[in-house]
Amino acid sequence: MLRTAVRHLKRADPVLARVITRVGPCRFETRRDGTHFDAVARAIIYQQLSGKAAATIHRRMCEAFGGRNPEPAELLAMPDEPLRAAGVSRQKLGYLRDLAARVHSGEVPLQALDDLADDEVLDALVRVKGVGRWTAQMFLMFRLGRMDVLPELDLGVQRGIQLAYGLRKLPTPKDVLRYGAPWAPYRSIASWYLWRSIDGPAD
Question: From CA 166, how far away is CA 134, in angstroms rounded?
Fold first, then answer.
């Protein structure tokens, strides 16, 4: 699949072909450990934090549940104090409880997301407080392994396009979609290369 994607991208866009040649082999990978609920909860905790700080908070939160990821009902039943002591901010705690409540009630059917179209997954996830379009797109790419996601709001993707095409200004989200149109149906892989071209992905 990755070889097919890279061949398509090189043929579709000579500018991106140069980026691909410079970056080298594609090592796009998904994270399939744990449940979808674990993955979204982790994404919420990691928002706007360094990876190291977020990993510490996530580990401490899991320790409050006996060293494992909590089920939605367990997260709802846990008092605030142990989670706040783990380092979860008041705002993110609200987001986590909203996620847990919506999953527990069935409003957000996380375990059915594999069978939904990309737009349906986005619509389901952005119902959760604290889960915006970017976070939902990262879930599509790095959790579900969807190959045709172009995170048009992502600063790294915008910067990668600016550098690759020699633009004077950062491209707008609309510009990103326009530049990325020829990359379909492998826009996730193109995004991975753009991130790597500026020394690190945004996942």
Answer: 25
The CATH number of residue 118's host domain is 1.10.340.30
Tens of pLDDT along 15-69? 999 999 999 999 999 988 899 999 999 999 988 888 889 999 999 999 999 999 9
Q: How far is residue 170's CA from residue 161's CA, in Å, rounded to a whole number?
A: 8
pTM to 2 decimals?
Answer: 0.87
Cis peptide before 82 (omega within 30 of 0): no
Owner of token pair 């450990």 = 33
Are residues 110 and 74 located together in one domain of the fold?
yes
d(CA 142, CA 30): 4
Q: Is 187 helix (H, G, I), strand (E, B) or coil?
A: helix
Instruction: Tell me how far the alpha carbon of residue 170 is from its chain's centroid.
Output: 21
Angle at which helix 118-125 crosses helix 133-142, to 10 degrees, equals 130
Write the DSSP symbol of residue 115: G
Q: Are residues 138 and 105 in the same domain?
A: yes
Q: What is the CATH number of the domain that holds 174?
A: 1.10.1670.40
Q: Which domain holds residue 87?
A: 36-142
State whether 97 and 131 are in the same domain. yes
Question: Is residue 89, in this structure, part of any structural domain at all?
Answer: yes
Whether the Cβ atoms of residue 93 and residue 83 lie closer than 8 Å to each other: yes
* Domain assignment of residue 202, yes or no: no
The CA distance from 181 to 9, in Å, is 11
